[in-house]
Design brief:
Number of helices: 2
Largest sheet: 2 strands, parallel
Strand content: 5-15%
Structural class: alpha+beta
Radius of gyration: 21 Å
Protein name: Large ribosomal subunit protein eL32
Keywords: Ribonucleoprotein, Ribosomal protein
GO molecular function: structural constituent of ribosome
Pfam family, one: Ribosomal_L32e
Distance between the termini: 29 Å
Strand order of the largest sheet: 1-2
Family: Belongs to the eukaryotic ribosomal protein eL32 family.
């Protein structure tokens, strides 16, 4: 199952003032048309856009993202539900060994770029 896509929520009048930027803020104005959900206004962030409970906290690929620091951490992973992310403190030589071991065990590695 894949996470549902949601619109990019932008701040009210973000196009008018550069200082506002792209970060979303809830409209608070008394007469704000966007706050009152009037027609033809962009979507406002709300609880209904949340992802399903089963998908929350997962990597976009659908696997649970687990940080791997050594070979024993790698061997503990469950290939069906978990994917490994090799720590940035691991050197190139050990990373290559870990990638070979992961291939043997059938484990998905999220940052295998060499």
């Amino acid at each position: 199952m894949k996470k549902p896509t949601k619109p990019k929520f932008k701040r009210q009048e973000y196009f008018r003032y550069k200082k506002l930027g792209d970060k979303y803020r809830k409209p608070k104005g008394k007469t704000s048309k966007r706050r009152r959900y009037e027609a033809r206004k962009p979507a406002m962030a709300s609880i209904g856009y949340g992802s399903p409970k089963t998908m929350r906290g997962l990597h976009p690929s659908g696997y649970q993202d687990i940080l791997v620091r050594n070979m024993t951490d790698l061997e503990k992973l469950e290939p069906a539900t978990q994917a490994g992310r090799i720590s940035s403190t691991i050197g190139k030589r050990k990373k290559e060994l870990m990638l070979e071991k992961a291939k043997e065990l059938g484990i998905k590695i999220l940052n295998k770029g060499l």
